[in-house]
Amino acid sequence: MEPLKATEGSPQKGKDVKSRLTELRGRLREIHDLQAAAALLGWDQRTYMPPGGAGARAQQIGTLQRLAHEKFTDPAIGRLLDELRPYEESLPYDSDDASLIRVTRRDYERAIRIPPAFKDEFDGNAAITYQVWTRARAEDDFAAVQPYLEKTLELSRQYAAFFPEAEHLIDPLIAIVDEGITGAYLTQLFAELQASLIPMVRAIVGQPEPDDSCLHQHFPADRQLAFGLQVIRRIGYDLDRGREDLSEHPITTTIALDDVRITTRVRENYLPGALFGSLHEAGHAIYEQNIRKELEGTPLGRGATYGVHESQSRLWENLVGRSRAFWEFFYPQLQAVFPDQLGRVPVDTFYRAINRVKPGFFRVEADEVTYSLHCAMRFQLEVDLLDGRVAVRDLPEVWRERFHQTFGFAPTTDRDGVLQEMNWYCGRIGGLYQHFTLGNLMSVLWFEAAAQAHSEIEAEMAHGEFGTLRNWLAQTIHTHGRKFTIPELIDRTVGGPLTSSAYLRYLKRKYGELYGVSFQ
Ligand code: ZN
Q1: Does the structural domain 213-359+436-494 have CATH classification 1.10.1370.30?
Q2: Of these residues, 88, 179, 244, 281, which one is catalytic?
Q3: pLDDT digits (tens, 9 = 90+) for 502-520
Q4: Of 56, 58, 67, which Cα lies nearest the Cα of 33?
Q5: To bridge 443 with a disulfide, which of 114, 314, 462, 504 should be the other Cys (CB 3.0-4.6 Å)?
């Protein structure tokens, strides 16, 4: 292919740029379609596939992902990106074409740093470690998975070493999911959060515990699901372009921007699980459903980063779904669905129950106040493991020590400790926890920015109307897809760097009121 320079200024220039863009988009579309097919196979794997299909399915998904990776690391992509650089530089930074070329180049340059043989070893280790972990957790046997986790740590370090320009080993691992965020920034952020949140939790647990027995009754699954579906439709999850099914772990899967599916799980003896799980996943799905169609089939046609994605799920789950205004509207409806269980429970009792702060062993069950403390501990362990300050064999003990430092008690089994969740056992250590906390921070920032721009949002929520809020999010965040990094999005929406102050202010106000405590 002719280099762009040779035709610069000639009447051919426009045509060359156009044909190169068309070629790039065509190649990216094929890769996208392979990934979408793999996503659909993955959705089926979690929902309807009979257990016997597991082996063949893993193989099929692996083949599609390998083909997508081969197509994406084809040197022809690199050539096209080089040739399109002058065109990119002639455009505004936030234009569709400049963003497409910039973001694709970033992905491409990251992908080609990783030698294929290393990728095979990395993926192979991930698959076997996950399998060993499921057994190890069931049997509370950390020693069984320890050598695999040691290998995972070694491979994570090797991965990071392919990016020698990084300041810290964890930076390239974070960049996989949260481009633009560094370990140094997070170290400071988590320390700040701990300094505020640990005293807050201590003050709260010193108060009388709210009665949440109303949530622990028998709630038939079909009625829970029907109510949840009605709620997520009302907040704006488009069921003509989505659907909800059951799976062991709730997930959101994007097959296409007009086909974004969620799953939930139901416990008949505990009401909040399915409801808030559905709200959370619907938040992820509403994000994807509102990305501009023009970006579909390219690396821009999905959520910006994991942290930004999590901000949207948490905004609907917590800022909206655990707010007083939301239940003004929905509580009478919920009482009508469960008259025997909730007919005599006042809305205030219910509101306190769904916002009860109770330190526990499990991150995924944590309330708003303790949640980020679980993430802080895991992030700091990731840094210490990568730096060699903590050895994998000592992890169960160090976990207990640090959990105790944070919460004043500790799990006695590893099943309730270091083995509790799959994340580190899926092939990588580093970059697996920051996005939950970044999401918490941004959920508050953006909810408050929307409420400031449209003072009617709170009153609308109390009437079951969410259009103003949803449209603000769609136009401010969702529409851009993956064009911008977290620092760029924060700068464009609220200005300045992302800090913990709005988030801490929100927690202190809400939980100060709920518990009758005034926090520093
Ligand atoms: Zn999520």
Answers
A1: yes
A2: 281
A3: 999 999 999 999 999 999 7
A4: 67
A5: 314
